[in-house]
From TrEMBL:
Keyword RNA-binding: no
Protein name: Methanolan biosynthesis EpsI domain-containing protein
Pfam families reported in the protein's UniProt record: DUF3485 (PF11984)
Stretches assigned to the Methanolan biosynthesis EpsI domain: 18-227
Superkingdom assignment: Bacteria
Taxonomic source organism: Methyloradius palustris
Membrane-crossing residue ranges in chain numbering: 12-33
């Protein structure tokens, strides 16, 4: 008995199976290529895990407000980062160093850590100098590709040492960061990231070299005083 369906072209069983198989393959591939979060289940508690006293340095209350970790000081850091720590440390000689740590569980093309030189300029500073600095920290499995900045706002100077870790790498610029995020995404990964920023206020540029040397010693003392889980958040493992 003929029906209205007899007018439609017949699709063979083999062709139907091939089409179904292609749909299944496409669906499976999409699942495999969907980035999976490869980081901690919860944000770290830096207030508890970063020691307030180590290597001759001691955290103190400081009325001085550090430069924001975002490009807009009115933009909440909690919208960009999962955990933020800002402290000021002093040593017995009266040296003063500001520490800022910003951790984000997910680094994506549209959500990534802001570099200090961008944040400072956005808040009225001028970039005077920018040098690359390799830090050989025993706690890191590879040399830390850090940066040294000198920023100026009117008569105020700040010497800054910082690095950014994304996954197991230290991207030196925004392009490298995007390539790292893209490469991990192709392998189905969304890795975490952290910014570690150390800064010192200066009256002039004459003490710049000494400031960088003290910052490097501070960084070594800090990373040596961390427990293993916290250490693994700040440097590549």
């Amino acid at each position: 008995m003929e029906t209205i369906f007899n007018g439609f072209p017949r699709i063979s069983l083999i062709r139907s199976c091939i089409i179904l198989g292609l749909f299944i393959l496409a669906f499976t591939t999409a699942l495999l290529l969907t980035p999976k979060l490869q980081s901690n289940d919860s944000a770290p508690e830096f207030d508890q895990t970063i020691p307030s006293e180590f290597g001759g340095w001691k955290a103190i209350p400081d009325p001085f407000i550090q430069v924001s970790l975002t490009t807009d000081k009115n933009y909440s850091v909690n919208l960009l980062y999962d955990q933020v720590l800002m402290r000021t440390y002093v040593n017995q000689e009266g040296g003063r160093i500001m520490l800022a740590i910003a951790y984000a569980r997910e680094q994506r093309q549209d959500v990534k850590i802001h570099r200090p030189e961008v944040c400072y300029v956005a808040q009225g500073f001028q970039l005077i100098s920018h040098n690359d600095k390799v830090l050989n920290l025993p706690s890191s499995k590879k040399p830390v590709m850090a940066h040294q900045l000198l920023m100026q706002n009117d008569s105020r100077y700040e010497a800054i040492s910082y690095w950014i870790r994304i996954g197991d790498e230290y991207p030196s610029n925004g392009i490298q960061a995007r390539l790292k995020i893209f490469k991990d995404g192709l392998h189905g990964k969304v890795l975490d990231g952290v910014l570690v920023r150390v800064s010192t206020s200066l009256n002039d540029q004459s003490s710049l070299t000494e400031a960088y040397q003290k910052q490097e010693k501070f960084i070594l003392d800090l990373t040596s005083a961390l427990n293993k889980p916290t250490e693994a958040l700040l440097v590549a493992h």
